[in-house]
Amino acid sequence: MMSMEYVAAGLFALALLHTFCAKQFEQLAHRSERHSGLFHLLGEVEVVFGFWAFVMIVAMALVRGGEQAIAYAESLQYTEPLFVFVIMVVAASRPVLLTVESLVVMLARLAPVPSALAQTWLCLALVPLIGSFITEPAAMTLAALLLAPLVFRPGIPEWRKYAALGVLFVNVSIGGTLTSFAAPPVLMVAGTWNWDSAFMASTFGWRAAIAVLFNASVMTFVLRQYVTEVPIAAEANAELPVPLTVRVIHLVFLAGVVVFAHHPVIFLGLFLFFLGFTQAYAHFQSPLILKEGLLVGFFLAGLVVLGGMQQWWLQPIVSSLQPTALFFGALGLTALTDNAALTYLGSLIEGMTDPAKYALVAGAVAGGGLTVIANAPNPAGVALLRRGFNDESIGAGELLLGALAPTAVAALAFLL
Q1: Are residue 65 and residue 185 in the same domain, yes or no?
Q2: Domain-terminating residue out of 23, 48, 75
Q3: Residue 143 shares a structural domain with residue 189
Q4: Do 238 and 305 have their domain in common?
Q5: Do 243 and 228 share a structural domain?
Q6: Is the Cβ–Cβ distance between 368 and 408 less than 8 Å?
Q7: Does 87 share its domain with 52?
């Protein structure tokens, strides 16, 4: 019976290794004309877990039979991948992006520093904290699109881009902890452990806010000589002004998707109406990021399929650790698996003490920026920002190094 579990663990390890080799596949794509398409596909980080999930389903069909393999695939919950796809497309629509951009530009003009520098700080600090109210995937989408022309562009050293990416990923991961519904790892335990938004704000939120502001301030200082007055993407494409009515309707769609985030029938229905509205008023729209959203959804669905077979070795580790060890264990394990999956396994353990619960969630969110798979919104950031890096790909090792310092800051904030 355990043979399939061992196969799934092996495939999961191969998928992790593949994410670290994605940049090498992109380099091979540039060198090989005959197989460039295949290497480019294998170099897409968003394709990795979907590809290996398909391999696992085929392996399960060979080991346990086709019916059991199909039954396993159909038994899983795909609400999160669907939600991230929808929220990415809606949040990245031109009216929403213009609205957030206008807010960022207005606040930046009040700062006693160059506007572009202030915009960079706001995108690294304010937008991730707003994620506590509009959900982390929406915050990641908006922050990535607004930062792309400011930071992730030619002329800025690669190591500074990776450092900024690490700060963005960590800040989004911890910035959603002011409420009980915005961060996937918190959402997995909030109902079971009776954690409401007031508890989250008083226990996690203020610590997270301090770390977010510190990380953003240090990163903005590091970028100060490279960030110039570059127009933000939405501003640059704004040939035709978007009426207030259209902006409000888009924001209503965004709010509706957030409110019904756990009801896919409802938010998918809203999304279909949203698509119809964008077609009816196409002259106020930019092309929707459907491809990027689908790739990210494919990545997360693959992670659901592969991750569903890892409980047999993950849960014993989580249940055997004392609070301090659990904090660091969760922080490390988050780099190897989605932090929401990790906290979900913790919610199944009976008799966990309050310090252990805190340690598990704090470690999971603090480590949410270490890898692409550590936090559900990270693939969205990769999909939207990879063109700003060499070979148009993001190296897993470089991301890990870039995220170490802001992760340490987040860990200290939650431990002290």
Answers
A1: no
A2: 75
A3: yes
A4: yes
A5: yes
A6: no
A7: no
Task: Residue 25: give the domain boundaries.
Answer: 3-75
Q: How many CB atoms lie within 10 A of CB 269?
A: 13
Regarding whether 243 and 167 lie in a shared domain, the answer is yes
Nearest to 187 by CA among 91, 258, 252: 258
Final residue before a domain boundary, out of 27, 53, 75: 75
Strands (E) located in 112-203: none
For residues 362 and 350, give the distance between their C-alpha atoms in angstroms, rounded to a whole number: 19
How many other C-beta atoms are found inside a 10 Å radius of the C-beta of residue 139? 30
Yes or no: say if 100 and 123 are a contact pair by the CB < 8 Å rule: no
pTM: 0.87
User: For residue 408, what are its two tokens?
Assistant: 């340490």
Q: What is the DSSP letter of 337?
A: S
175 and 36 within one domain: no
- pLDDT, tens digit only, all 416 positions of the chain: 458 889 999 998 998 888 888 778 877 877 777 778 888 888 877 788 899 999 999 999 999 999 999 999 999 989 989 999 999 999 999 999 999 999 999 999 998 989 999 999 999 999 999 999 999 999 999 999 999 999 999 889 999 999 999 999 999 999 999 999 899 899 888 888 999 999 999 999 999 999 999 999 999 999 999 987 655 544 444 457 899 999 999 999 999 999 999 899 999 999 999 999 999 999 999 999 999 899 888 988 988 898 888 888 888 888 888 999 999 999 999 998 888 888 888 887 878 899 999 999 999 999 999 999 899 999 999 999 999 998 788 888 999 999 999 999 999 999 98
Domain count, the chain: 2
Q: Sign of dihedral through CA atoms 243, 246, 248, 254?
A: negative
Residues contacting 406, CB < 8 A, separation 6+:
166, 167, 170, 171, 211, 215, 219, 369
